[in-house]
Every structure is written in C-alpha cells, then in structure tokens.
Amino acid sequence: MLNFIFSFSDMSMTGENVDVTLSSSTESPKEHEKNEETPTSRTETKKRKGKKPVEASPTKGGKRKKTSATWDHFKEIVGDKDRAKCIYCAAKISCSTANGTNAMKRHTNRCKKAPFNLDKTQTILDFESKTKCNTDGTIETISVPKLWRFDQEQIRQALAKMVIMYELPFSFVEREGFRMFCKVAIPDFVPPSRGTITKDCYALFIEKRRTLKNFFSNLSSRVCLTTDTWTSAQNLSYMCLTAHFIDDAWKLHKKIINFFPIVGHSGELIARAVEKCLQEWDLKKILTVTVDNASSNDLAIKYLKQILNLWDGSMLNGEFLHMRCAAHILNLVVKDGLKDVDASVTRVRAAVKYVRSSPERLQKFQSCVKEENIDSKALVCLDVETRWNSTYSMLKIALVFKKAFRNLKTKYLPYTKKLRKVGGAPDDEDWDKVSSFLPFLEIFYETTLSFSGSRYVTGNTFVEQIYDIGYTINRYVDDLQSSDGLRSMARQMKLKFDKYWANVNNLNVLMFITLVLDPRHKLRYVEWIVRRSYDPSNSYVLCQRIKDVLTSLFDFYAFMQPSSTQKTPCSANPTSSGQDGKGGIRKLKGTNLRKDYVTKIESADTFETMTELDRYLGDKCASESDDFDILVWWSM
Predict the structure, then answer these.
(1) Are strands 124-133 and 139-148 parallel, antiparallel or unpaired?
(2) Could you tell me the keywords of this UniProt record (predicted)?
(3) What is the mean pLDDT of the chain?
C-alpha cells in the first residue's frame, strides 16, 4: 500500500500534469459569474401551445463546464475538439459530442499507467524490519528490502492458518470489523465467506497431512508415541496420539497425528484405535509407546506389541515398547503424600474459592491486602483438584496473602460463616503446614515441568531427576529434625514411589540407555546412580541388564546399517609359482611365525578390534555447559 501511495504521489506531482489539470479545471472570474447565474435567467423560454419549450443558448462568449468525472483524467487538446489527451499515458482518445465520454471511460479503466489500475501481479519493492546483533553486542533494527506481489490465494491460505492457530470461528471472516480492516489494508483482497474459509482450512489440513506422511515414509529414525485419554464434562471420551521423532538433520519434532473420540477406556479399544492410526500414516518403525498407569493400558501394549512384530516394525521383539508416563507417576506419588494434609489444603482451597466467587468479595479481600501492605501483583487462583501442580500454584500464591486471609477472617463475618460448612477458614496451623511442605513439593513441581517439555530432549535427564526425587524422599523420611507431618508425608510418597521404581526387573532399561548416550556422563555415571539407589544385589542385576541391552541395541543397529569400512586381511606376498625364472625349482625361505605375527600387529589398526560403542564409552566425557545440546553433539 505504501508503494502504491508513493507512486501515486510522484505521478500526480509532475509539473506538466499538475499545470494542465489546474488549467483545465480553473475558470476565469467572468466565466464563474456566468456559470453562477440562475437557471431561470439562462434557460428562459417562451412557451407556445403545442410546441416543446426551446432552451436558450449559453451566454455569448461563455464555456460550458464539463460535469463528467472522466475529465479528471484527461486534458483538452488545443485545436482538436474531437479528442482528449490522457494525463497518465498521453494517449489521444475521442471525446466528440456525438460519442460522449464512453471511449474515455473505457480507456481510464484499462490504462496501465493509472495508479488505481496497478497490475495485481506486479512485483513491488517493500521493506521488512529485522533485528541485527552487532559485534559489540548491541541490537540494531534494520530495514531489509524484499519483493512483494499481491496473491489472492496466498492471502487466503495465510488467513486459514490464522483461523486455525487462534481457534477463531469460521464466521470471523464475515464480521464487519474484519472486512473493514481488509478494505483498508488490502483493498484488492476479496474476503472469503465462512463456507469458503472452512474449505480452505480443510484443504490446508489435507496438504499438511500429505506432506507429513511423505516425511514419515522417508524417515530413517524410529518414532516414539505418547497417548492421552480423558473424559470431558459432557461425559465424552477422547484420545490424543502424538508422535515424537528426530529427523535426519538431528532436529526434534512433535506432531499430533490423531485426535478423536473413543467409546471407552478399555485396552482393546485403545489398541485398535492406535493400530488404525498407524495404518493411516503408514508408521511401522515404533520405538516406544508412552501411556499412563491405568491397568487397561497393559492390555493395549500387549496387543500393539503383537501387531508391530507382525509388521516387522518393533525393536528387539518389542521388549522395551511399553514406557510408563513419569509425569503421571509423580502425580500419583504427590497425591498420596497430600492425603495427610488434605484437611488443610481443603480449607485453603475453600478460602480462595470464596474470594474468587464474586467481585464484591474480591474487592473486600483486596482491601485487606492493602491494609496488610502486601506488595504483590499476583492474584489468588483456584486449582484443578485432579492436577496437583495446579494445587501447588494455588498454595504458593495463597501463602503470600496469608495475612490478608487472617485479616478477612477477623473483620468479615460472612467469610467465616460461609466457610464453616467446609470445616472453617484456614487457621495458623493450616498455614504452618502449607509453608512447611511447600518447599518439598517444589521439587516435584519443577521436575513435572521438565518432564512435560516437548520441544527439547528430556530422555537424557529422566533418570537423574527420578532418582534424585527418590533420594530426597528417603532423606526426609530419615530426617529426625523434620516435623512429624512432613516425615509422614514422605513415608506415604515413598510407598508409592517404590511401587514403580523399587523392582529392577519391572524397569524399562531404555531410560538408562538414554543417559548412557549423554556424552557428559556415559556408563560410569549411570552405574553410580544405580549403586546409590539400590542394594548391592539389585544394583549388580540392573547394571548387568543395562550393559546387555546396550550391546544388543548396538548390534541391532549395526546389522541394519553395516559399516562401509572393512578390515583388510593380512597375507604373505603372493608368488605366481614355485619356480624360478629359469624354470628350475626355486628354494623357499624358512617361515618365521613370530615375524609374521609382529608384522600383522604393526600393520593392523588397534581400533579395528574395537566397536564404535567401545570407542564411545572409552573416550573422555564431554565437558559440562549450560548451553549444551545433546542433538548438536551427536550431529557432529
């Protein structure tokens, strides 16, 4: 648009055109006076019976003003009354009174030099603002030239993406405000109807699905799946299936490959739904399937393992296909620990719910906050009872306003009266309990956030964080200086934690393999974690399993992708025959076994006897750094 305005301004400000336009539209004072005469004085006629009135001719010497807007784009040619000159392209067009201004109108509509007839396909030079980091560390905003061309289809496609990204209703494109914006910003763009934008969104989905399917067909790595099932407030069950994979450029991807309603949460239904989705995407090379810890999922994994083995898509017969959701396990661990302080949490939740229930109550609470001089921009928030991390956030913020809640309890009788129905308002003992176990819960909260990340690799930190939590729980259990309530909470958590992590035979060893493949730690660090977390007998069993699985995995991939380099066998210099040049019997030299052995050892590369895995484990560990990226390291 700016280019259009600038080009129009430059064109209209050229000296010749401006002068001519002014001269053609400006009248002399006499002509102005004549034109201002009343119609009666100019068209006075004598009416005769049976004849039409005869109009009087214009005043002698006067010039009739041209009223057609077409003359704004033309100028008269001196000495040629039948033609006019276009002020944009200088073309001479007929303007005789017999034909009128139709020819001039047609030319104006198709004149390519007219600014309002700018070719939509014409490329326009535009400038885009970008930030540039200088060598001294300063940030500078620069304008980068780029070419832009109006394209109705591209704008419609971008509009469809916007509707999808921000979950806008399809009727958004028919709203008056949006159409007014388009008229000002892109006058040439014709906004689509709600039906058209619906088709555009679906077409975009089909195109993206086709592109992703082609990508999967050429993907050399395996795919990890995560499933999530839940029941909505309308009692409808849904399932989301997400694929996580690393492409050939060592970039991590997360793609939702299906989102659909299911009849129930049974293992067979879930397994068949996953199978159908994998068939649609032609996905067969599956590494793991992560599910929550519902018993029905065990049956689903068993069925999927059989299917993948039939497809020849599993690894090591699907032994490590089942991966339990660590975030769900932590949720169960914390919920068991919170049972001992459930009464205090319930009272704090009721207090927050009361404050948030109406504007009047919130205003009363804010007045208490001002009286207590609490300087915080945060606002108390209500939790979702099934999500303990939201409970942690609720308690953390409520603890900041502890004095305000005390003030409200003292001065506002309706508050205490209302909360008597749920056990009363939180007292000092409740706040003390919350403040004592909140730092303990913070460890679980931060770990859950780390597990929930999908845009960065979490496998190499999984074992560290899980066993660090187990170590922390044991420390609170054995700490005699901790309060009885906190130790009781830790004991409840330990029971649930040990249910999933104490039995070394039920662990998926792949989570330890990912830590071994972190070049900063490797096998020795994993063995140290195992020995610190288990007794000597279980430690030996688990460490041996990790080594065996690591070797099996290497052999599995080495068989699929054999090395291009082969060992060169050592042999004596060959001779064509046992005869000398004269045809007689040549005397053979004596064989020296030790000499041949030394020659073989000296000529052979000692690394040829070691596998790539042996060399990796034997090399020095990578140095620690805050910006370390494991994918970048492996891509080099």
Answers:
(1) antiparallel
(2) DNA-binding, Metal-binding, Transcription, Transcription regulation, Zinc, Zinc-finger
(3) 81
Confidence of residue 34 (pLDDT cuts 50, 70, 90): very low
Range of the domain at 106: 1-29+67-123
Cα distances from 572 to residues 499, 576, 606, in angstroms, run 64, 13, 20
Residue 23 in any domain: the answer is yes
Q: What confidence category does residue 597 fall into, taking pLDDT thresholds of 50, 70 and 90? A: low
Residue 295 burial class via C-beta count within 10 angstroms: exposed 0-12, middle 13-18, buried 19 and up: exposed
pLDDT at 607 over 70: no
- What is the model's pLDDT at position 24? 37
Q: Is the predicted pLDDT of residue 360 greater than 60, yes or no?
A: yes
Q: Are residues 23 and 118 in the same domain?
A: yes
Q: In whole angstroms, what is the distance from residue 591 CA to residue 607 CA? A: 28
pLDDT tens-digit series, residues 449-466: 888 888 888 888 889 999
Same-domain status, 410 and 349: yes
Is the Cβ–Cβ distance between 353 and 382 less than 8 Å? yes
Last residue of a domain, one of 480, 502, 524: 502
Residue 320 lies inside a defined structural domain of this protein: yes
d(CA 309, CA 323): 17
User: Are 450 and 306 contained in the same domain?
Assistant: no
Does one domain contain both 169 and 243? no
250 burial class (0-12, 13-18, 19+ CB within 10 angstroms)?
middle
Q: How far apart are CA 378 and CA 393, in angstroms?
A: 11
H or E stretch at 330: helix 326-337
- Of the two residues 151 and 492, the one the predictor is more confident about is 492
In whole angstroms, give the CA distance from residue 387 to residue 48.
99
pLDDT tens digits, 180-216: 999 888 888 899 999 999 999 999 999 999 999 999 9
In a domain, 579, yes or no: no
The total of structural domains in the chain comes to: 4
Task: Check the CA dihedral 163-167-171-174 and report its sign.
Answer: negative
Count of alpha carbons within 13 angstroms of residue 185, beta-carbon side: 9
What is the pLDDT, as a whole number, of residue 56? Answer: 42
Cβ count within 10 A of residue 184: 8
